[in-house]
TrEMBL record:
It comes from Roseivirga misakiensis. This is ABC transporter permease. It comes from the Bacteria. PANTHER family: ABC-TYPE MACROLIDE FAMILY EXPORT SYSTEM PERMEASE COMPONENT 2, MEMBRANE COMPONENT OF TRANSPORTER-RELATED. The lineage of its organism: Bacteria, Pseudomonadati, Bacteroidota, Cytophagia, Cytophagales. Coiled coil: none annotated. The chain crosses the membrane at residues 21-41, 291-313, 342-365, 385-409, 430-453, 685-710, 740-760, 772-791. Residues 20-231, 442-652 form the MacB-like periplasmic core domain. It is found in: Cell membrane. Residues 297-412, 688-802 form the ABC3 transporter permease C-terminal domain. One of its GO terms (cellular component) is plasma membrane. Its main location: membrane. GO terms for molecular function: transmembrane transporter activity. InterPro entries: ABC3_permease_C, MacB_PCD, Macrolide_Exporter_MacB. Keywords: Cell membrane, Membrane, Transmembrane, Transmembrane helix.
Length: 810
């Protein structure tokens, strides 16, 4: 029986090549895309899955409440985890990680700029699941200047030689290599090339419950509910941070809270950080769980579209195969034989499609890895469980597609069928129409969503941020220059350099320090983000002053301060800010006592962070300030036509001043675009997958039109004999599909609006959906055009056919 069914299946599939190509090709491509999506999702959801105690390992995060806004931080005070381990018996261990900075490291006269530097407590390798390749884990940080290298970094410096005991030179002094660790996995929320002993960083060591400086982690004991620790942190803040607040702000902690200030510490499961944490000062740009849901939905949609095609074509062809069934019944075939043949053929197509899909994955994987910047392998996905699921899915899909022709056709009486009196079931037509509506419902939702994602990306890249992002060359690590003023003078002479200014942090960098201020005569202090500006920074960045002036060498600006508009409002001086006296209360940035500044200018609010977050209050010190300032970046407004030459000339001036320090630069617009890298990459994937989904819907519609119009060929002949023009016939055939597309549009637009509202909620600054009606209009029109183009070939061919030929059997 198997041999006979196989022979008949091969013969039938070979006879109907177009049908076979559409079914196998569409199903194979959809399964391949689905598996690619699942591979991508699998790599995203398994971040930090390698830690041995991952179920008990948490990061301490903070919601910081201000009177007019709330900020959300991944960085927390240095003492928060250590004190929790002392006070909370539920805590087994704690570990702190300092996020690090770029530093030049030299070995035997060869220097490298190391941006992957971090520092951690001595028990780092006990808490986290990173293995030591060389060295003793228990004694890895035996001296303050010990450093652990990643395996690839050790090979970079020492080749195949042993690394232990080697000395690296840096601005932090000599670093003794005490160990080599395996490279951190790609799917971890923190990575390092060099890991310092946290004790080496003396500026961190004082007890501190207010200033955010490290990522704190807690390893809880077995069975401890993290909510219990969240509740206990309320007491820890009142026991330790409250006193520090009262001393620095000169008000009681109760008054401080009553004014709208507050701290809520909570624990984040380490496995949730990559996809569910979008806090300030993350180690890297995290993923987004919303995209995971979107991609999974697309995977389901694509497979559903292919399955609909498969089932739709199977039911559409059932009428054509009715005479085949009648003849076989006359020749003695039993019903069970007919059922087994139809089911075998359907299952065969489904399984072959799966095998082709796996082959396609192997071909596509290198390009997909390059695009997503991941190192995924199909072998990791093809576990026995997943293979079983895929086979069951193929078998199930084959059974589902084969049920209608198998059971319905096998029940027909051969006499009725052979007389040509078989009448298509209205239920069958309803099913086919419903499946077409479903296909285009999905396609329209995806088209509209893709257009709106593109509009939001365009908005992010072109929104007026309050400064000029174009043609700004940023020279980083300017603090390494021995004579900054001479360097700036030389650079300003380069043709094409229009202006130059300095700043401690550039927009989008996230490297801002915090400080508390209060208006003179007031008790309540307000925490602001702070930066240092120098020279013609405002002019270089084309920032606008709302009131007052910027810093100038014509004035003694050691006690001058500038605020953004939000900062003036937060301090209560928005109505008359210029000349207001503001005290910078004692804290980490001025440990020697309060310093009183005079406000000389108000900068119009500008987006100094990602557009995911709202503009927050900010204070700007002069580089000549009594507080002291670090101009880490120089911003050069340049002529874009000479950018390459300017970069090279600045490099030569840098080498003349700091030959042992690495020259690092970037263009501001590139770094700002990098803030939305996840959205841009996901948007491109979304576009690719949407295009594939639409293509699958089209080939399904093309195949369906082949059989539907073929079944009406005699009707078309009669209409033409009775005088209908070819154009009229084409209109009648297309009109049936137009109705289905209209129904799809009416259902899809509300669904697309709901999906996009959810996605746009992740941006503080976003397009208004009421302004995107064109996208929904285009989505409907594109779907209609696609349907017309898909169906038009068969419609025109049928309308132009000779009616005599079509009716000759009647």
């Amino acid at each position: 029986m198997f041999k006979i069914n196989a022979k008949l299946a091969f013969r039938n599939l070979a006879k109907h090549k177009l049908y076979t190509f559409i079914n196998i090709g569409g199903l194979a491509i959809s399964l391949a895309v689905c598996m690619l999506i699942l591979l991508y999702v699998n790599s995203e959801v398994n971040y930090d899955n390698y830690h041995p105690n991952k179920e008990r390992l948490y990061r301490v995060a903070l919601d910081r409440f201000y009177p007019d806004h709330t900020s959300y931080y991944a960085l927390t005070p240095f003492s928060m985890a250590e004190q929790a381990a002392i006070d909370f018996p539920e805590v087994e261990a704690f570990c702190r990680i300092f996020p690090g900075f770029g530093i030049d490291v030299t070995y035997e006269n060869e220097s490298f700029l190391e941006n992957g530097l971090k520092a951690a407590d001595k028990n780092f390798f006990e808490v986290f699941g990173i293995k030591i390749i060389e060295g003793d884990k228990a004694d890895i940080f035996n001296v303050p200047n010990a450093v652990v290298l990643s395996e690839s970094t050790a090979r970079k410096y020492f080749g195949n030689d042993q690394a232990i005991g080697k000395i690296l030179k840096s601005a932090l002094g000599d670093l003794i290599v005490s160990g080599v660790a395996e490279d951190t996995p790609q799917n971890t929320h923190f990575k390092f090339d060099l890991l310092l002993n946290l004790e080496l960083l003396n500026f961190l060591q004082a007890p501190n419950f207010l200033n955010f400086s490290v990522h704190n982690y807690l390893l809880l004991k077995e069975g401890v509910d993290p909510e219990l620790i969240n509740e206990k942190y309320v007491d820890l803040v009142e026991n330790y941070a409250a006193g520090q607040i009262e001393r620095s702000q000169n008000i009681s902690f109760e008054e401080y809270k009553a004014s709208g200030n507050g701290y809520r510490y909570y624990l984040q499961p380490i496995q949730d950080i990559h996809l569910k944490s979008q806090l300030e000062a993350e180690f890297e740009v995290n993923g987004n769980i919303t995209y995971i849901y979107i991609f999974l939905s697309i995977a389901v949609f694509i497979v559903a579209l292919a399955a609909v095609n498969f089932i739709n074509l199977a039911t559409a062809r059932s009428t054509e195969r009715a005479k085949e069934v009648g003849i076989r019944k006359v020749l003695g075939s039993e019903r069970k034989q007919l059922i087994s043949q139809f089911l075998f053929e359907s299952i065969f197509v489904s399984v072959v499609s799966l095998l082709i899909a796996v082959a396609l994955i192997f071909l596509i994987m290198p390009a997909f890895n390059g695009f997503t910047e991941k190192t995924m392998a199909l072998a990791t996905f093809l576990t026995p469980l997943n293979i079983g699921i895929l086979l069951l899915f193929s078998l199930g899909l084959g059974l589902l597609a084969g049920l209608y022709p198998a059971f319905i056709l096998s029940s027909f009486k051969p006499v009725t069928v052979l007389k040509g009196k078989l009448i298509s079931s209205k239920n069958g037509a309803w099913i086919r129409n419903g499946l077409v509506v479903f296909q285009f419902f999905i396609s329209i939702v995806l088209i509209c969503s893709t257009l709106i994602v593109g509009q939001q990306m365009d908005y992010l890249q072109n929104r007026n941020l309050g400064f000029d992002r174009e043609n700004v060359l940023v020279i980083q690590r300017a603090f390494n220059l021995p004579d900054l003023e001479t360097f700036k003078t030389e650079v300003s002479k380069i043709p094409g350099v229009n202006s130059i200014g300095g700043a401690s942090a550039m927009p989008g960098s996230g490297i801002y320090f915090g400080a508390s201020f209060r208006q003179e005569g007031m008790n309540e202090a307000v925490a602001l983000n702070c930066a240092v500006f120098a020279d013609e920074y405002l002019e270089t960045m084309n920032m606008e002053l709302a009131e007052g002036r910027s810093f100038s060498k014509d004035f003694q600006d050691t006690l001058a301060l500038m605020l953004n508009e939000s900062g003036a409002r937060a301090l209560g001086i928005a109505d008359n800010p210029i000349g207001a006296r503001i005290s910078n209360v004692q804290g980490a940035n001025n440990p020697n006592g309060n310093i009183t500044y005079q406000v000389v200018g108000i900068i119009k609010d500008y987006n100094y962070k990602s557009l995911h977050t709202e503009i927050t209050p900010m204070a700007i010190f002069s580089s000549e300030s009594a507080q002291g300032g670090n101009v880490a970046n120089l911003a050069l407004k340049i002529d874009p036509a000479q950018s390459a030459a300017i970069v090279d000339q600045v490099r030569e001036i840098w080498r003349g001043q700091a030959p042992n320090q690495t020259y690092v630069y970037n263009f501001l617009d590139d770094s700002l675009n990098g803030l939305y890298e996840a959205e841009q990459k996901s948007g491109k994937l979304f576009l690719i997958f949407t295009s594939i989904a639409i293509w699958i819907a089209c080939i399904g519609l093309f195949g369906l039109a082949t059989f539907i119009i073929g079944s009406r060929i005699k009707e078309i002949g009669v209409r033409k004999v009775l005088g209908a023009s070819s154009a009229r016939v084409v209109f009648l055939l297309m009109n049936d599909f137009n109705k289905l597309i209209l129904i799809s549009v009416l259902l899809a637009v509300p669904a697309a609006i709901w999906v996009m509202q959810k996605w746009l909620a992740g941006f503080a600054y976003r397009i208004d959906l009421t302004d995107t009606w064109v996208s929904f209009f285009i989505g409907g029109i594109v779907s209609l055009l696609v349907a017309w183009l898909t169906v038009s070939y068969h419609s025109i061919k049928a309308a132009m056919s000779n009616p005599v030929k079509n009716l000759r059997t009647e």
